[in-house]
Amino acid sequence: MPPARRSASRSTPTAGVPWDRAELAPIVLIRGTEGLLGDRAVSRLARLAREAASADGSAELEVTTVEAAQYEGGRLAVITSPSLFAEPQHVEILGFESMTDACATDVLAYLADPAPDVTLVLRHGGGVRGKKVLDALVAAKVALVACDPVPDRDKPGFVSAEFSRARRKIAPEGVAALVDAVGSDLRELAAAAQQLISDTTGVVTDQEVDRYYGGRVEATGFKVADAAVAGDVAGALVLVRHAMASGTPPVPLVAALALKLRTMAKVAASRGRDHGADVLKGLAPWQVDRARRDLQGWTPEGLATAIMATAAADAEVKGESRSPEFAVERAVRRIVAARS
Amino acid sequence: MTSVWDDVVGQPDAVAVLRRAVTDPSSMTHAWLVTGPPGSGRSVAARAFAAALVAGDGGRWTSEVADNARARVMRGTHPDVHVVATDKTVITVAEVRDLVTIAQRTPGEAPWRVIVVEDADRIVERSANALLKAIEEPPPRTVWILCAPSEQDVITTIRSRCRHVTLRVPPADAVADLLVRRHGIDRDDALVAARAAQSHIGLATSLALNAEARARRDRVLEIASRVRGVGDAVIAAGELVEVATAQASASMAERDAVEKAALLRSLGADNAEGGKTLPANVRTQIRQLEDDQKRRGKRAVVDGLDRAMTDLLSFYRDVLAVQVGSDVDLVNAAQVADVRAVAAASDPQQTLRRTEAIATARTRLAGNVAPLLAVEAMTVALRPQG
User: What sequence ranges are listed for the domain AAA+ ATPase (chain B) (predicted)?
Assistant: First the structure.
């Protein structure tokens, strides 16, 4: 039961339908920070527009893509003005979050007077830039598509949906193994799912996932700290090596160890104290629960040794030692040894 | 009768040398280097010497004109006394060249033209080279007075051209006398403050006059007896860092705002109000200023923690003094009970290990270790151990 921690949780979800239910409309606004879903929504709308044009039997659809950052004044009017052959037009403005001022002005003008036979797709990748235009668009009730980041707890559902869209099945263990292996980046997760779909037949099991993505773990400082305070020296060292090999610098690894030990010491101190709750101010309930479980097998003396070892390691990774990697590994070993 | 030397506290030897130089022309020379630990009153001594050269030291010359001249020197407004003080890290070549020009001028009303450089340790080598000739052979009526924490801080070529005057750490009694005379504080309180500040005159003044500073120091020293276990240690470390951060941001906030307003004004953007956004190039400059200020704020936090650690060191120094039965005066006279309790509960080896832990933490802070983590490791090492 992992609580919703470390996932990119957003305060309020963006309004709009998900990408796979996006439908054509004179103006469609795609908002949200998840790039993969945004790209998919844009290409889905382009496909729908093509299909609609060919079903119509009218002239060929003309698709124009504009980068909002390079937009020059008047461009939108040029593109959308009716042509001699009355072709339907599909206009995509990408990177709307870094739009030029001219782009904002022209889109606002277009909103007041949209052209017939034109579908305009705006892709805004999050952020506050262009808020005025966005508010105007929302107020004008244009079609909205939301592409919020997928939280960790929804990633298994995302994988299952990928397979069912390709009319394939994946076992629940397979889903869990895949999310564990490549789950941090949605693009990577989708690519891995695509590869499994095209390279395998039948129901995908965790053995098959393991054959393709076995041995890959996502190592973060927090996972290293979890393994170290749990007394798993081998697991923690594998994670340390893995994290550093995949580009995590030693300093945040040590910071994660320090944070973990600090929380544990505070939770231990809150027991049997008059103002125990004051001590835990600023800690989330799941952190406290987690620290309570972590504290099993720890003595105060052990914690003291572990904290001092971590401080020494921090000094070492910041220049006191010639081998920061070794300093982190030694700190992990010392922390495990301090656990009785 | 007041004398210019009154404010030079607890330095009879140095004052004797300087007085003789004022009264006896054969003892006078053209370049002086005043050294002494922080808080010993280097710049005060330099100004007093300058005043004595300009208008006598108040012993024999008592005319109103002389009094007036001395007062102007102490305030830094006398035309023949030029004082250089900087809050930058180095004194640049351009500034030094200005000094060289000033040194060539004949004094206007006084017998001497005096140039006081308060931070001679910040003269880098390139600037020093521009200064060498002027210091070695100034015009007959020009005197240089340089101040630095120690002789080693001044570049050799400058050092060898000056006559040295060394200030010592003033005795706590003398500092207390100064506090009584200057601020009219009760003599006992003044002595406690002087001891607690370890004779640093500026710190002693702030401890004696500012109840908040006193309370802050007491709170730091409480750590030594309050921390009973690892949990306490981590909590105390958190508080210590929090207080240092709050103090730093309080003292910086006003200055930061003034600097930002000045920058906006010089960029001509100070009337952009009502949510009007600034142009991108102005924003970059503002961001750069804010980054610098953040760096300075961080530095202030580390300085505050370092001061707290020095206070803790003085506490364990007292503990050790009690443990080995030495009869020196305690630095922390107000915390005698705590000192004795800690001394009874531990042995000298432990005390030394603790002072070592504090020293390690100070080194680590200077080495950019996360302040909270460094302080935690220190407070953990201070907890009572069996």
Answer: 28-170
